[in-house]
Amino acid sequence: MESARSWREILDALSARHNLSQEQSSWAMDQIMAGTAANSHIAAFVMGLRSKGETSDEISGMVTAILDNAIRVDLHGPAVDIVGTGGDGSHSVNISTMAAFVIAGCGIPVLKHGNRAISSRSGTADVLESLGINLSMPASVVASCLADAGMAFCFAPAHHPGFRHAGEVRKELGIPTVFNVLGPLCNPGQPPAALIGCADLRLAPVLAQVQSERGFAAAIVRSDEGLDEITTAGTTQVWDVTTSKVRHEVLTFAGTNIVAASRDDLLGGDASQNAQVVRDVLGANTEGRLKAIRDVVAVNAAAALVVFDATQSTQLYGATNT
Description:
The chain is α/β, with parallel strands linked by helices and 322 residues long. It has 2 domains: 7-68, Transferase, Pyrimidine Nucleoside Phosphorylase, Chain C (Transferase, Pyrimidine Nucleoside Phosphorylase, Chain A, domain 3), CATH 1.20.970.10; 80-158 and 166-315, Pyrimidine Nucleoside Phosphorylase, Chain A, domain 2. The chain is 47% helix and 12% strand. It contains 14 helices and 7 strands. The chain has helices at 7-15, 22-34, 39-52, 56-68, 95-105, 124-130, 139-149, 156-159, 164-173, 178-185, 204-214, 263-266, 271-282, 290-313; strands at 80-84, 110-114, 151-155, 193-197, 217-223, 235-241, 247-252. Helix 1 (7-15) packs parallel to helix 3 (39-52) and helix 3 (39-52) crosses helix 9 (164-173).
């Protein structure tokens, strides 16, 4: 059957709870990125997907369209990303941001991709800006920064200008949508390895399937507390995408010397407050709750290093990643 090429056909299919093909979802996202989709179309599209449940084909098609419209960063060697979907409602400190610095400190290049806060008080971009990082660097400078410093940040609005066309709808809806899970998959440099936190338990295995089919090494993680991070308290669900098959595992640190961090331990503030936590943790301050935060950062950084190592040992970096 010929793929739909109109919003009416796309939305009719979704209202009937029919899955879209990669071509159909790619067409719809291309319209959004180009700014030709009305807000009503965007809202109906993302809510239709959410209502029936997004498939790996639909997400892959949207990723293709987003990257086709992106300002890309040229990688000249291996790198890793550590990123979360957000939307977990925890208002936590910026764990993946701190872990990125730790990974880079281990000598592994980190190309981090992120945005300002949507539902929390401080997103990755907010805290990095508070730390003095320039968010408006062109793609060529981002690539040079990665090569020279071993770490660089891709500010999503600078590399995906088309996302602005969905911004108003996302804010008005005020709930997680497919856009939350698309961001972590659309790093403009497309590093071959990533630790991706997914707050939506239903979508975590779908993201794992997407990354597996695209030839990327990844670990998709979600704590049983609902965090889009690996937790040191309780257990974490892990979808391991470092071999030819997706493997599901459960991770726990019970019985170890790792300090269990409660949700209160991880509670963050605004950008300046979270930036101070970054300085304290990276500065080896272990007073009060900082020791628990440090251990959460350490285990997330370690997991990302394991994923990165898989790209080296299995030579996944030579795969064709698009």
